[in-house]
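Appendix B. One record, verbatim.
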Amino acid sequence: MDNWVAIEEQPIADLDSRFRELQAQLRREAAGVDLSDLDDRDILVIPSFSLDQHQLEKVPGYLHYEERLLFSLIRLRSPFTRLIYVTSQPLCPSIVDYYLQLLPGIPFSHARDRLMLLSTYDLSLKPLSQKILERPRLVERIRKALRTGKSYMVCFNSSPFERELSLRLGVPLLACPPDLLYWGTKSGSREIFASAEIPHPDGSRLMWTETELLQAAAEVWERQPDLQRLVIKLNEGFSGEGNALLDLRPLASVAPGRSAVSHSERLAALRDRLPKLSFQAKNETWANFSRRLPELGAIAEAFIEGEVKRSPSCQGYIAPDGHVEILSTHDQILGGPDGQIYLGCRFPADVAYRLALQEYSLRVGEVLAAKGAIERYSVDFIAVQPPGQTAWRLEAIEINLRKGGTTHPFMALKLLTNGYYDTANGLFYSQQCQEKYYIASDNLQQPHYRGLLPSDLMDIITRHRLHFDSSTRTGTVFHLIGALSEFGKLGLTSIGNSLEEAEALFAQVEQVLDAETVAHIPHYHFNAGRSPSPPLPITWFGGE
């Protein structure tokens, strides 16, 4: 307990220094070697969304996103690797069994004996890592289970909570140091793009008040008089939920270039438009949005128009020794009122621009590595094809210094096929040199899917042969299974030997789920009360 108090009382600079000393262990261990290839290691998985919780609350079933890193269980294919996975609520045993059964060539019982599952039993609106820190006995239990010098910790994203947990456990964290997280914000991304000398939209620096934001918006508009729309971005928005569009077309009478219109009049007209912003998050309002400005800050950025427009991204990895590697490119599938909400992705990105994505993202990774960042990062782009042209124009719009929506599908592909990504052409090959493609989503959601239990999904997968086939290395793997019953929401990655095959597999899952559920929607004559299910116990596989 004395150590507990001592850590809390230490200056931030001292904590950062100790944290980096722990991370230096990873640099020594993984010198010239992929850390994930090392066997005989203990991996602590903390799938905590340590982001702005008010933004996350707008994502249906976001608590179940802790399940997205369950693909890490495939690491148990290494016979001496042990894994501890901690969640806010206990995982359904059948969901865990589903992932363990994906392991190629490993006896099911052998993998179970090397897996420990723990839960905080806390569904409150807090990051998981904070919940763990509030439970000293749980922290001590984890610490005792990890082998000294043979353990490391992974997470969804790094924050001061993850740093503190790393220090309390004495285990290095394979993630970007929290003091560098600014470079993954909207304003920080713009600075990195400028340093890397890659194209990005005109925009403002970080603003903290409505008055400052309006001034910034007016200045961007005045630099680009033909601008049709501006996008206002909370500095730490998640999955597009913190974005809002400001339509300038109704303000043509005060547009820059009209000599009779003063700057102050233009500001007043912009202020009047704020309540009419088009918000990407459902039920968002300017009154609520503006309250977050003093806390999070925001930028104003030119919205990129185009009749033919796509949203590709590129994922990279910065090794503990600073080496930068490109992992994958994707064409993102976006939705929402103005197409800014992440729904899913296709792998790989279009051949017309995938190599350019790699080049730009490598530059970004090198700038980040020079600042001390490590682990995964991704860069989101807008690709526009001007009328009458075949070439595409790329603009970088955001950096994510964390695992994102494209991380777990690619992790699944790589771990299930034992294949490799070829940066020469941006394609992925299995061990048999077969090209591999996939389409993935976190948002296969229908009201009539509600009420499906994990066991029901397993029955449907088995009956209709929707599972991933280890012999052909094609098929569908599922995630977010825990969100299905309450939210009617499911994640999936459909892997094929062509993009057409992957899309057909994805469509087959949708067709089967619709056929299995629409015909079975119950019709009640009254609302019957339900008794809550008893809490599930912590699920343990193997010993400590």
